[in-house]
Amino acid sequence: MISVAEALERLFALVAPLEPETVPLRVAAGRVLAEDATALRDQPPFPASAMDGYAVRGDAVAPGARFTVIGEAPAGRRFAGRVGSGEAVRIFTGAPMPEGTDRVVIQEDVTREGDMATVTGTPGPGPHVRPAGADFRAGDRVAAPRRLSAADLALLAAMNLPEVRVTRRPSVAILSTGDELVMPGEAPGDDQIVASNVFALAALLEAEGAEARILPIARDTESSLRAGLQLAQGADLILTVGGASVGDHDLVAPVAAALGMDTAFYKVAMRPGKPLMAGRLGASAMIGLPGNPVSAIVCGTVFVAPVIRKMLGLGAAPAPRLTAPLARDIAANGPREHYMRARLGPEGLEPFASQDSALLSLMAEADALLIRPPSDGPRAPGETVEYLPLPRP
Ligand code: AMP
Ligand code: MG
């Protein structure tokens, strides 16, 4: 059995960042920028008014100063002439500053009578002007790799970039295995259950930016598994679920081996999730996840999500860990790294009393996986522990 860290290293070795593609900005949210994006213009492109008011020469501004208003500059239409001393242009937010002006007196500080504008308030230091290029300059870059946020999209739009180069989405085929499984909505036989964890895995992968495809369930026969793996061909990553231990009906390893899988490892010292298998199968990376619903979701979080991030060009890094105090005491851990389902409350992390890896109802209540290092001693309330947050939409 290898450690979680070692397993992750070997998984990273199975995949490489995928190639970039060009997508319209409109659908680029959450995608990973694959190449630096370069601004095509300065923003603002001209010195612009930051307020509604009067554009003047700054040295003439004082309480009681009077200006003749010689024109107007709304946003999108600059004042064509030059502004001399004793003159002002009525200006609005976003409009280019007229030639000869360097300050805006806000309209609240001005009384207007006909063509005359008189400073009646006590103007602050101003100047209420956004200098050209204050936000960014032509040639400035948004550096790759970077997962694009809502604000990033606005920034790229302002740079006048209608399209961006992003990493292609990894395609993932998910194959459930087991004679006991039916799909939700079907009528399960007396001895059957509903395939569940594949829906969690698909959601988790899609949240990371992958494209997930749930294949028809493979039965616990060699031919059915072969057919399932055949259907998975062409995916960047194949995930099998179940059938990965060493029971008589656990056929994933032998069938994958017969199809030529080059096995990278077979078992990991973790709880839940010990039977985890990985390798390359044809052009795809393959990860064999345990069938236990909670194990599959934990392995998806600990292993598959970081693998997807590497494929997206975000580097090879484990799922980011946070720390919190323990809300209650916990007993010593065994020899395997334990991912305990927990809730994060005002007192800190509270692991559930039951850690049965078959209980999806508890998994759905959890918002954190408390991480116990192998052979960690007992821990008291208030001690700091590490955890993986379980994101909620
Ligand atoms: P296995 O790894 O095939 O021995 O499965 C371990 C446990 O997980 C068994 O109780 C299976 O019935 C269950 N299981 C396997 N695959 C799934 C699935 N896709 N959804 C829900 N439970 C599953
Ligand atoms: Mg099975």
Could you write a compact summary of the structure shown?
Helices cover 18% and strands 30% of the residues.
Give short descriptive properties of this protein:
Molybdopterin biosynthesis moea protein, domain 2; binds adenosine monophosphate; 4 domains; Molybdenum Cofactor Biosythetic Enzyme, Chain A; 30% strand; binds magnesium ion; alpha+beta; single chain; 6-stranded mixed β-sheet; 393 residues
User: What's the alpha carbon Rg, rounded to whole Å?
Assistant: 31 Å
User: Approximately how much beta-strand content do the residues carry?
Assistant: 25-35%
- What's the end-to-end separation, in Å? 35 Å
Which word captures the global form? elongated
In oligomeric terms, what are we looking at?
Answer: single chain
CATH topology description of the largest domain: Molybdenum Cofactor Biosythetic Enzyme, Chain A
- The count of domains is 4
What is the fourth-level CATH superfamily of the largest domain? MoaB/Mog-like domain
How much helix, percentage-wise, in residues? 10-25%
Structural class: alpha+beta
Q: What is the CATH architecture descriptor of the largest domain?
A: 3-Layer(aba) Sandwich
In the CATH scheme, the class of the largest domain would be Alpha Beta
Query: Which cofactors or ions or other ligands sit in this model?
Result: adenosine monophosphate, magnesium ion
For the largest sheet, list the strands in their spatial order. 8-5-7-6-10-9
